[in-house]
Amino acid sequence: MTKLGEYNTPFKPSPGNYYLMTHLIDSLLVKVHSRCNLMCDYCYEYNSGNTSWRSKPKEMSKDVYEQMLVRVKEHCDCHQVKEMFFSFHGGEPLLRQPDWYRYAITKARTVLEPNTSVSFGMQSNGTLLTMEWVELLHELNIGYGISIDGPKETHDKYRVHSNGDPSFDLTMDGLRLLLTPKGRSIWGGVLSVIDVDSDPVEVFEFLAQFNPPSIDFLEPHGSWGDLPSGKTSYQDLTYGQWLIRLFNFWFDHPDYSKIPIRKFDEIIEHCYGGRGSLESLGLEPVTLVTVATDGMVESVDCIKAAHPNAHYLGMNIYENTFDDIVDHPMIKLRQIGMDALDQVCKNCEHVLICGGGYFAHRYDPSDDSFSHRTIYCEDLKLLIGHIRRRLGR
Q1: Of 14, 280, 318, 325, which is least packed with CB atoms within 10 Å of its CB?
Q2: Host domain of residue 328
Q3: Of 165, 164, 170, 157, whose CA–CA distance to 124 is shortest?
Q4: 80, 318 in Cβ contact below 8 A?
């Protein structure tokens, strides 16, 4: 990814560079556990009407994991994929026992290396993190991302246990462990879901005090048939206005702007003709799929918020290769860039930056398709236009 400042003059690259078909998968979201110790109100897995998790094994077995590695090696050898990334996910991945991760890392490196180097990450709610876990993740070189939405009042509004008890104090216990030397060595960043009723500056200053490696501010998931909390209509600009307030504060304070905010960095990167890494922006082909605990291969995980079967491809790691999977129409839609967008998007001045928005947010039940603009289209147009003007000045 191009570093900021590497380009001096914004330019508009040819769209042809952004929707070349790819047949490569180089990232897997590996669902090592299908349950969670929290029940966050906005969770796409447990609170969006999708109940597929109920029929899944709680844990991914060694048999499933090893067959997944067979398919990964087959794909990497065929297409000369030199780097592969596994994101251990759930549910909550720390519900697995530590010994499983020792096995999983060793096995993956034995099967894939040296022809393909493999790296590992994990996204967790932080409530189960202990110093013993930090030492193990440091030993195994597994990056750790923590989910926290801001100060206590903001965080506990949605991130709660199944009985409604708040989770902030336990999450903070985990976060403090990431401030130790070994914790810093594994800390990949913060994931924070936007609550438009919160003050964006207050939320950012709270997170910034810990000097995180990066912050990823995410809009809540939704669709054209089910708008998220705080968005009253398609034309509503509440999320765009919230993000602009955050951007201005971040951009105008040099000490704070040293902390990467991924959404802003990606927009700036695209403004200067670079290529991004976020699935929610730009037109670069998406090279990630999900492997569930039972070995089923699924589309982007949070697409479950669109409708109950949105993630279902009817494919698994026993009967299908990854070449089969990238030929699936739902995966192709995430790889063909401009060709997957409606005409309004194609004619938009921001299309190379926005890319139509996050695929999971384009679903319209009226025609049962994802061939629409994101529900956050107006918010993104407002935000991107603002950032382009600020860069221009």
Answers
A1: 14
A2: 15-392
A3: 170
A4: no
Q: Is the pLDDT of residue 263 over 50?
A: yes
Q: How does the average pLDDT of the chain come out, rounded?
A: 89
Q: Hey, what are 173's tokens?
A: 């216990």
As given in the structure block, the two tokens for residue 361 are 């947010």
- 3 state SS of 236: coil
Tokens standing for 258? 């040293």
Cα–Cα distance between 303 and 30 in angstroms, integer? 16
Does the residue 298 lie in any domain? yes
Is residue 7 in a domain?
Answer: no
CA neighbor of 387 nearest in space, from 284, 263, 239: 263
Whichever domain contains 155, its CATH number is 3.20.20.70
What is the number of domains present in the chain? 1
Q: Is residue 176 part of a domain?
A: yes
Would residue 8 count as lying in a domain? Answer: no
Residue 352: partners with Cβ closer than 8 Å, 6 or more residues away: 12, 13, 15, 18, 270, 282, 283
217-255, pLDDT tens digit by residue? 999 999 898 899 999 999 999 999 999 999 999 999 999
CA-derived radius of gyration, the chain:
20
Tokens of 376: 């956050």
